[in-house]
Amino acid sequence: MKVFYGWFVVGGLCGVAFFGPMGRYILTSLFPFIMEDPGWSRQTIGLAFTIHFWAYAFFAVLAGRLIDRIGGRRTIAAGGALMLVGLAGLALMRNVWQFYLVFGVLLAAAVSMTHFVPNTAIVRKWFVKKAGMATGVVGVGTVVGLAALPPVISRISAAMGWRIACLICAVFIGTMIILIAVLVIKNTPEAVGLKPYGEDDTASPSSKPSNSALSGRLYELSPGRSLRTSTFWYFFIAYSVTGIPLQGILSHVIIWGVETGVPPEHSGWIMAILALPSIPLRIMAGWLGDRFGKKRVLILFNLCTALLWLWGWFFIRDGTSFFIFALFLGFVYSAPFSLYTPFLGDIFGRLSVGTLMGIITLGHGIIGGTGPFLWGWIADVTGSYDINCLISAGCYLVIVLSLWMIDPLIAGKVRGRRAE
Length: 420
Description:
Elements: H1 5-19, H2 22-36, H3 42-69, H4 72-92, H5 96-112, H6 116-126, H7 131-160, H8 162-183, H9 223-227, H10 230-259, H11 268-275, H12 278-292, H13 294-315, H14 319-330, H15 340-348, H16 353-366, H17 370-382, H18 386-404, H19 410-419
Helix pairs in contact: 1-6, 1-7, 1-8, 2-3, 2-7, 2-10, 3-4, 3-5, 3-6, 3-16, 3-17, 4-5, 4-8, 6-7, 6-16, 7-8, 7-11, 7-12, 10-11, 10-16, 10-17, 10-18, 11-14, 12-13, 13-14, 13-18
């Protein structure tokens, strides 16, 4: 039996997801080293993350449009080239303004073209059925990359200097992304004479939706019509607010660990402890969403994350309790990202999912992008990260409420009203 080529695309995107996020999270590994040389504060470095996310938000909209217009292959290859240039530039920067320009803008553009929006949008174009599971597999690449690369970068930085580490990453990461894009990625199944996996060939305009997994061309809404629904904006709020605690912890987790007593040369393992538990959960969350409904599973995991952050506020007191908290957080915090883009495609259709996810990521970047700066500012003022745990718990409760308000059948209802 011939293997559907979409699974090869998933494998390639898993590789892109392994490397792409390091255009952002390399700074998490370099955090303690940059605090020593050139000696910048947590607030200064946190602001770099925030500028990065704000720029990323706008570039993600462009990346989504590029995915729908010129295809994922060219978009990701261009992102790989920008990654090579940006990481090399990071190694050469000397002043704060250079730091903000290279990391905050150039690498933000690179990440927008090699990370969440293009990877998940391409998967949704290839899959109707099993879209959640396929996205979960791609997400495993991100998690494995976050677990495997930071320890290596930290060791190289301790042994050879963080600038040399940046140059090595520039050549290796940029080249690998370009090769995967050119050799493996195909834009859509139609481009190679195939149909999306699981597309119902018998769908007709008179068909009615049987469940929340709206599929095929029948339930396509244009971006303009999607933006006029309240469901889109509830989705926008949920995904945007997610960024505050998510990017806060991913930006500060290593320096937080170092301040509890972890040696800088071993600090990369903190990210590994946070990331590794989410590997099976990414796939399981995708499968659960396909099986029991993506909305239900999204609400469940986000509610568990809210409770865990509240527990962390009471529990974290030293290095041991910090590691235990990071381990448990790893089991729940990233699982929803296997479902956001497939769920968006279920609601509004797959043909414009890149554009819509780009718009939603704009909110994630602008609103959620305040997280790294906010975390750094609070830690500098209070001398600890405790208050950030409470803020994060509150954010996840807002996310749960927003997800609860989403109507998965809105596309069919909009089409029904137009037919009347």
